[in-house]
C-alpha cells in the first residue's frame, strides 16, 4: 500500500513512538529513521523479545534512535519525552484480551490511564502536536446482529453488500471484554481531546496486522504465531471452530497509512479510520493454516479449544474511508505477505533469536 504525496512534514523535532520496540512501532521507527528522523522509542520492554527489536533499530540507525525505557504509567518520564516531540505515535498498550480477563485493572491502567497520561502531557504543551493512536476493531464488539452463513471453512455475512465492503466506521461502538472497554474508552478520549481541546489526533481502528518483527503468541499476533508453530512442527490450537474470518494487513502497508495520516493531519484530525486489509485480504483461521501447509509442503496438526469471550466470528474492515482520505493504494495480497513472513520466520525459528534473519520472498508458484 503506497500513499500519494509526501511523508511526514519537515518538522525536524524528534518523533515519539510509545511502544516503539513492539511490532508495529519498530517497523514504523525503522521507516522514519531511514528517512532521517530522530525517533524516541518509549517502551517498558515488558513483552518478551521486543528488546531485540530495539537492538536491531539502534544497530541500523545509531543515534537517530533515542531509547527511553519507561512505563506509559510514569507521568513524569512520559511528560519529559513528550516535551521533545514534534509528533507522537501511540502504540504502548496491554494487547491481549485474555490478559485483560485475568488482570482487568492492569489492563485499564495501561490502556486507558496511559493514554490519558499522554493526552494530558500533550495538552500541557500548549501547542498542536499531532497524536496518532492505535485502536482496535474490538471497539465494535462481537457483532451479534450480523447474520452469518457458513461457506466452506469461513463465516460470511448473509448481507451481500456487507460481504463486499466490510465493517465501516459508522458501525455503533459496543465494547466487550475489559480489553475492549479499555481500548474503546481510550479511543473515545483521543477523539474527544481533538473536539474539546483542539489537539490534532487521529484514531486507527486496526484489524490484524502481520509481518516481520512480530512476536506472535497464542494471545496476540495470531498470523505469526500460527506460522511459528507450523515451522516448528507443533500443533496449532484453534479456539472455537477456526472458521472465524479476519482481514489481515501487512505491516508495511500499516506503516504507510500512519505516515500518510501524519502528513495529512490538518485534513484528518479528529477522525477515526478502520485500518485493515479489507474484503480482498480476508481469510479464515483454517484458510490461513491451509495456506501455511501449502507453503511448507506438509499438513499442519490442529487442536481445538472452547470459544473465547468477545471473539468475533466475522470481522473484516471497510478501509474505504482511510483509502480516500489518506491516498492509499492497494495493499499487498495476504497470500504474498504470508509467504514473505513464512520465509522471514523460517530463517529465524530455531536459530539464535538475536541474529537478524534475511527476508526471503517465496516463489510466485507457491502462492
What number of structural domains do the residues give?
1
**Number of continuous helical runs:** 13
> What's the gyration radius in Å?
20 Å
Strand content: 15-25%
What is the helix fraction of residues, given as a range?
40-55%
Q: Strand order of the main beta sheet, please?
A: 3-2-1-4-5-8-12
Largest sheet features: 7 strands, parallel
Q: Could you give the distance between the termini?
A: 19 Å
The run of helices and strands is EHEHEHEHHEEEHHEEHEEHHEEHEEHH
Number of strands: 15
Helical/strand content category: alpha/beta
Find the CATH topology. Answer: Rossmann fold
User: Could you name the CATH class?
Assistant: Alpha Beta
Task: Describe this protein's structure.
The chain has 367 residues and is α/β, with parallel strands linked by helices. It has one domain (93-366): Rossmann fold. It has 13 helices and 15 strands. The chain has helices at 23-34, 50-61, 75-84, 97-102, 104-125, 160-165, 177-197, 222-231, 251-263, 265-268, 285-296, 320-326, 334-346, and strands at residues 15-18, 39-43, 65-69, 87-90, 131-136, 148-151, 154-157, 201-206, 208-210, 236-239, 245-250, 271-275, 282-284, 302-305, 314-315. Strands 3-2-1-4-5-8-12 form a seven-stranded parallel sheet, with helices on both faces. Strands 9, 11, 13 and 15 form a four-stranded mixed sheet that branches. The longest helix has 22 residues, at 104-125. Residues 352-367 have low confidence and may be disordered.
TL;DR of this structure?
The chain is of the alpha/beta class.
Amino acid at each position: 500500500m503506497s500513499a500519494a504525496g509526501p511523508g511526514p512534514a519537515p518538522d525536524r523535532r524528534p518523533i515519539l513512538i510509545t511502544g516503539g520496540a513492539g511490532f508495529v512501532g519498530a517497523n514504523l521507527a525503522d521507516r522514519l529513521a531511514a528517512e532521517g528522523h530522530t525517533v524516541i522509542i518509549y517502551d517498558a520492554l515488558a513483552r518478551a523479545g521486543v528488546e531485540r527489536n530495539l537492538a536491531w533499530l539502534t544497530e541500523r540507525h545509531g543515534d537517530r534512535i533515542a531509547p527511553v525505557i519507561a512505563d506509559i504509567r510514569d507521568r513524569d518520564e512520559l511528560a519529559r519525552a513528550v516535551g521533545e516531540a514534534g509528533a507522537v505515535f501511540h502504540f504502548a498498550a496491554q494487547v491481549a484480551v485474555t490478559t485483560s480477563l485475568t488482570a482487568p485493572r492492569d489492563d485499564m491502567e495501561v490502556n486507558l490511564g496511559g493514554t490519558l497520561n499522554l493526552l494530558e502531557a500533550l495538552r500541557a504543551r500548549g501547542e498542536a502536536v499531532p497524536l496518532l493512536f492505535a485502536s482496535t476493531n474490538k471497539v465494535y464488539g462481537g457483532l451479534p446482529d450480523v447474520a452469518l452463513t457458513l461457506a466452506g471453512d469461513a463465516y460470511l455475512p448473509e448481507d451481500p453488500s456487507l460481504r463486499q465492503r466490510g465493517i465501516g466506521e459508522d458501525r455503533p461502538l459496543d465494547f466487550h471484554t475489559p480489553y475492549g472497554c479499555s481500548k474503546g474508552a481510550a479511543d473515545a478520549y483521543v477523539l474527544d481531546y481533538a473536539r474539546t481541546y483542539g489537539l490534532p489526533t487521529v484514531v486507527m481502528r486496526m484489524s490484524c496486522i502481520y509481518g516481520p518483527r512480530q512476536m506472535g503468541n497464542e494471545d496476540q499476533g495470531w498470523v505469526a504465531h500460527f506460522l511459528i508453530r507450523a515451522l516448528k512442527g507443533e500443533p496449532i490450537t484453534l479456539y472455537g471452530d477456526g472458521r472465524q474470518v479476519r482481514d489481515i494487513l501487512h505491516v508495511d502497508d500499516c506503516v504507510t497509512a500512519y505516515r500518510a495520516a501524519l502528513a495529512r493531519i490538518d485534513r484528518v484530525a479528529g477522525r477515526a479510520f478502520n485500518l485493515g486489509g479489507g474484503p480482498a485480504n480476508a481469510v479464515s483461521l483454517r484458510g490461513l493454516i491451509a495456506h501455511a501447509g501449502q507453503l511448507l509442503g506438509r499438513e499442519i496438526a490442529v487442536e481445538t479449544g472452547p470459544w473465547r469471550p468477545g471473539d468475533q466470528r466475522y470481522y473484516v474492515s471497510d478501509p474505504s474511508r482511510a483509502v480516500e482520505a489518506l491516498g492509499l493504494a492497494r495493499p499487498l495480497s495476504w497470500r504474498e505477505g504470508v509467504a514473505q513472513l513464512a520465509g522471514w520466520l523460517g530463517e529465524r525459528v530455531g536459530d539464535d533469536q538475536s541474529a537478524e534473519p534475511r527476508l526471503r520472498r517465496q516463489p510466485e508458484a507457491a502462492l
